[in-house]
TrEMBL record:
InterPro entries reported in the protein's UniProt record: FAD-dep_OxRdtase (IPR006076), FAD/NAD-bd_sf (IPR036188), MTOX (IPR045170)
Keywords, ordered alphabetically: FAD, Flavoprotein, Oxidoreductase
Cofactor list: FAD
Domain FAD dependent oxidoreductase: residue ranges: 5-354
Annotated organism of origin: Sulfobacillus acidophilus
Organism superkingdom: Bacteria
Protein's recorded name: N-methyl-L-tryptophan oxidase
Database matches in SUPFAM superfamilies: FAD-linked reductases, C-terminal domain (SSF54373), FAD/NAD(P)-binding domain (SSF51905)
Listed GO MF terms: flavin adenine dinucleotide binding; sarcosine oxidase activity
Pfam families assigned: DAO
Length: 374
């Protein structure tokens, strides 16, 4: 039967990065995904763009990791000889005490990151499209921007193949058996043996690890289009926390041919990956527009396109990266990326492979220890 040093189950952005990392390290590697096509639109990795930023309001401890992610994305760009990171600057907007504003400032101050704080009036002088309340502010971070998401995802596949990895899609890993010194995977009707296993299956993690403390949340990003929005092609990425509901709305500069991407971060319907609706409704649109008065051009612009994606959230919104319980240290899980993991894929892929060969949790991953939910 076939044997590999490392197998990766789930080839979204995290799994494809891990597969490439394993192959690049000289390990024999194989990746499995149940989707008949790659990339696909059923999980959390599809779409053209993802925000990347350094003044990380979710927790200051992410900052060293996001610095490494920036470096890794630049290295990937050099290999591809094609841009992946587009620097636009970033605006974190809301009341001074909001988590988006206060958390960004706390992270920037702890890690000595350059930033500016603008009043609502100063913001409007620079970017007239934004209309904040008089008591709101904007934190400006020059280093922020966005990643060309599907270009990065596709590149991980091509580089993994270049370095000898095997990719099998349209197949299902139905289970595994922990044998001495190896793992036997039941893949459709055959057995594949591996030394280490990395599991990055996104919202399907509940089917593999039923006790994992995650919740699956439905999200609907929209692309709007109008001549007015087309003038925002040189605007920064942004996240605004609304003063009264604490809803977080994020968006990107206008991209010709794609439109103006804008969405709510969290606040979606929760359920299982098998029951969440993939149909976008008028209620989805109105739920977003309710929060767009700070950006009148978007409030009145028609919808060009929309899609459904999913978040896999932990209770504290921090990731889960570490060894699967009762796996003899041979199985590593990356899960619960809670809607803000994509930007870290360039560094978490290699760290997942490294963790698979270490008995203790790596220092860089302490914030994400699965044991915190024990």
């Amino acid at each position: 039967m076939p044997y590999y040093d490392v197998a990766v189950i789930g080839l979204g952005i995290m799994g494809s990065s891990a597969l490439y990392a394993a192959a690049h390290m000289g390990l024999t590697a194989i990746g499995f995904d149940q989707s008949p096509t790659l990339p696909h639109t059923q999980g959390s990795s599809h779409g053209q763009t993802r925000i990347i930023r350094q003044a990380y309001f979710e927790h200051p401890d992410y900052v060293p990791l996001v610095h490494r992610a920036y470096d890794a994305w630049h290295q990937l760009e050099q290999k591809a000889q094609s841009p992946i990171f587009i620097k636009t600057g970033g605006l974190m907007m809301g009341l001074p005490q909001s988590s988006v504003v206060s958390g960004s400032i706390a992270a920037a101050q702890k890690h000595h990151l350059p930033y500016e704080v603008w009043t609502a009036k100063a913001l409007r002088a620079r970017y007239p499209a934004f209309t904040l309340g008089a008591d709101e502010v904007a934190v400006y971070e020059e280093a922020a921007g966005y990643l060309l998401a599907e270009r990065a995802w596709t590149l991980f596949f091509s580089l993994a193949k270049k370095y000898g990895a095997c990719i099998r899609h349209g197949v299902k890993v139905r289970g595994w058996h922990l044998a001495p010194n190896r793992i036997q995977l039941a893949v459709d009707d055959e057995i594949v043996e591996v030394n280490r296993l990395i599991v990055t299956v996104g919202p399907w993690i509940q089917q593999i690890w039923p006790k994992v403390p995650v919740r699956v949340e439905r999200q609907v990003p929209f692309w709007l289009d109008s001549p007015e929005l087309a003038r925002l092609a040189n605007h920064p990425i942004f996240i605004r926390e609304t003063p009264h509901s604490a809803a977080q709305i994020y968006g990107f500069p206008y991209l010709p041919g794609e439109g103006f991407k804008i969405a709510r971060h969290h606040g979606g319907v929760e359920g299982s990956i098998d029951t969440l609706s993939r149909t976008v409704t008028d209620a989805d649109e109105q739920s977003l527009r309710h929060h767009l008065h700070f950006l009148p051009a978007a409030l009145r612009a028609p919808v060009k396109s929309c899609t459904v994606c999913v978040y896999t959230n932990t209770a504290d919104m921090h990731f889960i990266v570490g060894r699967l319980p009762q796996s003899n240290g041979r199985i590593v899980v990356g899960a619960g990326f809670s809607g803000h993991g994509f930007k870290f894929a360039s560094v978490l892929g290699p760290l997942l492979v490294e963790q698979a060969y270490h008995s203790q949790l790596l220092p860089e991953l302490q914030l994400f220890a699965p044991q915190r939910f024990a």
